[in-house]
Every structure is written in structure tokens, then in C-alpha cells.
Amino acid sequence: MKNTVKSEALFSEAAEIIPGGVNSPVRAFKSVGLPPRFIKSGKGCRIVDEDGNEFIDYVGSWGPLILGHANPEVLEALDVAMRNGTSFGAPTRREVEMARAITDMVPSVEMVRLVNSGTEAAMSAIRLARGYTGRDTIIKFSGCYHGHSDSLLARAGSGAATFALPDSLGVPGSVVQNTVVVPYNDLQAVEAKANECAGRLAAVIVEPIAGNMGVVPPKDGFLQGLRDLCTRHEALLIFDEVITGFRVAAGGAQELYGVIPDLTCLGKVLGGGLPVAAFGGPRSVMEHLAPVGEVYQAGTLSGNPLAVAAGLTTLKILRRDDPYPELERKAARLADGIHEVFTEKGVVHTVNRVGSLLSVFFHEGPVTCYEEASLADRRAFSAFFGRMLDNGVYLAPSPFEAWFVSTAHSDRDIEATLEAARKSL
Ligand code: KE4
């Protein structure tokens, strides 16, 4: 058991003045039943907590740090940018460069609007889709998370009911009655609901590779099926690529699978660890946004010069170095090694992986939707998580999250992780 004195003292002080002691619930380690570690610093693929414990980090700020912590080029870009001021509330050259980089890299994006979080990106994309189509109903998938805007905090309604139920207190039933929730990877279910909503369907929003129920890849034909369905219904297909964008390929899942959505939400890697997110698509749709069109959306710090400097440098490095083959090789080694160790120890498990995104389920599998992911053994996961922490590996503190491999994870780090897994099991 590592020394956690300072983290625990900070946690009890924080809990008096910040709800749950954290500024985002998943950080509280509630689902693993441990006090969270307060992180002091990060460098490369490693982080150090307030008690001086060092960990190999697979959270990477929940996805943004594809280049690892404190990447020297990103820090240099921030240093230069901040000396010219931190924010103007006016257009800047760098925002044009960022928009150009996004439209060059993401196949479906001709025009893009920067925002500050994935929540804003998804919320705004939904409003744009409703404004563009003049329709209200949206379809989302159980186990997919698109941030915490009201109409997306919805869970499947009971039985055959078409409308969804709120997935949080404070969300009026009236708001989510235009949201339909269906199981991921179930094309028949989507077809049936879409036919029920015919003429009222504004959009289908999907994580093209699910990352919020653990990693769940799309079944063959699922994404293309959604594409065809939306075209038939004259509804917009929205890919929430906040996790997958620039992560599984330079052009995200839409490049990897060759399926073109109408709108794309981006974030995480886009900001390189600072708050940048975005949504974009064809000019014909995006021009419905204020101040050109009638769909309102705004943000004081959208396109912030420091955040954009970090994000733009991250994108430039990804385009210059093309790290994807290396990320694939290292993440494959990690996934295969985990499979070997779990099999050696006789522990029931399934490993799902796409590129440098992976998850381990304490479940025999296959895991193709939330209903299956939720059958995994949470106690076993919690025990494994705690032992890995003791053995110097910092995993996402939830069985419904992804492990992220970065360019900063060396082969030695991967082997050390596998050794830690062997000891932990
Ligand atoms: P943010 O508002 O947290 O920046 O992004 C929301 C969001 C949108 N879309 C997808 C696919 C996402 O994964 C997220 C946020 N992901 C969570 C965990 N996977 C971030 C961690 C947290 O909530 O603290």
C-alpha cells in the first residue's frame, strides 16, 4: 500500500468546499471505493501524486494527452503565446490556422466552430441539427456519453415507450421526451425507432467507437447502416468523436471506417490538454449558425489563444510524425499481453481495442453494447484497479472507461505494466 497521507488530507479538505472534493465526478474514485490521488505533476507517460508516488498513466487526462504529459513542444508554444496575452474576445490568426488544420484532417468537416468542452460541442451540434431540419426528435445509444447537456442526459424509456427518461435529477421529463435511446450496435432497433419517429427525426448521435461503456467497437455495417438510415430519413448523422477524433487516426473514426457523418463533435486531443473542443460539417449546414444563420451558439473563451496554441501544436505534431502505426503496435502489445496474463491467471476477461484505445472487462464477452458491458464483475475490477495503483499503474477508476496509450509510453513502460498486471492478479 503506497503512502497516501497528503492525498487523503487534501481530499477531506476538498470535500468540504467542492462537491465530492472533485470538479468532475469520475475523479472521485467512487466506483473503485478508494480515496483519489491528488496529482502533483506529469511528464511523458508518468504522473506523481502529492505523496511522491509515481505511476504509469493510462488516463492521460481522459484522452487529450496523446503526446503524454508536458510535451516540450506544446509547452514552448504555450510559453510564446502567453507572452502576447491570454485572451482577447476577438478573432485571431491562430483560430483560422486551427480551423484549417481541422478541415484538412477530418474528412467530413468543411466548416468548424470552436467551443470549450465536449459537452458544448455535442449540445450545440444537436441544436444545429434541430434548427437545420426543423425537427425535434434525436436518437442516442445507451452507454454512449455526449457530455451533460439536458437533452443528452437521458436513459432508455420503459418498454416500447418511444420517449426517454431523465438520467439525472434536474432534467425535466419534457426535455428528454424528444430523446430516444436504443442499444448500441443494434441496427434493427434504430430502424424501428426511426420509423416510429418518421418525419420528426432531427438527428442520430453516436460515438462511432464507444468509449464510455468501456471501449466497444462498432459491428461491421453498423455505422454505414446509420449513415444510410439518416440519409433515408433526411436526418443528420452526428459522430461524437470527442474521444476518437485524432486518436484512432488523423481523421478519427470516420477516416478509419470510411463513413461520413453530417456533423462531427471533437475535443480532448484537439486541445492537447487545454480546453478546446469543436463541432463541424458541411458549409451548407454550418452556415445556419449565428451570426450568419438563425441557430444561436456562443462562448466567451471559445478559441482561446493559449488553448488553441496547445491544440494546434498537438495537431501539427500528429501530422508531422504520424504516430499511429507506433501507437497501434504498442497498444496491441499491451492488449495481447493483458490477455496472456489474465489467461495465465485463469481470470475471466475480454479485451476490446481500437488503435490506442482499449478496455479490459471482467466478463467472458463478447462485449458489444452497454447491456453486456454492465454484466462485467465490478468488484473484480475494483480489486484489480487498487492493486495496479499499488503496483505503480494508474488506470481509469471505472470499468466503463478507456485506457489511453500515448506516444510517450515506451516498450519498457508497456512491459512494466504487464508485470504489474501479473503481480496484481
Ligand atoms: P467534456 O464536456 O467532459 O469535455 O466532454 C464530454 C464528452 C463528450 N463526448 C464524449 C464521447 C466524451 O467521452 C465526453 C467526456 N468523457 C468523459 C469520460 N470518458 C470525461 C471525463 C469526465 O467526465 O471527467
Description:
Helix content is 37%, strand content 16%. The longest helix has 21 residues, at 324-344. The strands form four sheets. The protein has a seven-stranded mixed sheet, sandwiched between helices. Strands 1-2-3-15 form a four-stranded mixed sheet. A three-stranded antiparallel sheet has the order 13-14-16, covered by helices on one side. With 425 residues, the chain is an alpha/beta fold. It folds into two domains: 5-66 and 323-424, Aspartate Aminotransferase, domain 1 (Alpha-Beta Complex); 72-321, Aspartate Aminotransferase, domain 2, CATH 3.40.640. The radius of gyration is 21 Å and the shape is globular. The chain starts with a helix and ends with a helix. The protein has helices spanning 5-17, 72-82, 93-105, 118-133, 173-176, 187-196, 222-233, 252-257, 283-286, 305-321, 324-344, 370-373, 378-390, 411-424, and strands at 39-43, 46-49, 54-57, 111-115, 137-142, 154-155, 165-166, 179-183, 201-206, 236-240, 263-266, 277-281, 350-354, 357-361, 393-394, 403-404. α2 (72-82) packs antiparallel against α10 and α13 (378-390) packs across α14 (411-424). α8 links the parallel β10 (236-240) and β11 (263-266). Ligand KE4 is lined by residues 24, 26, 62, 117-119, 122, 145-147, 207, 211-212, 240, 242-243, 267, 401.
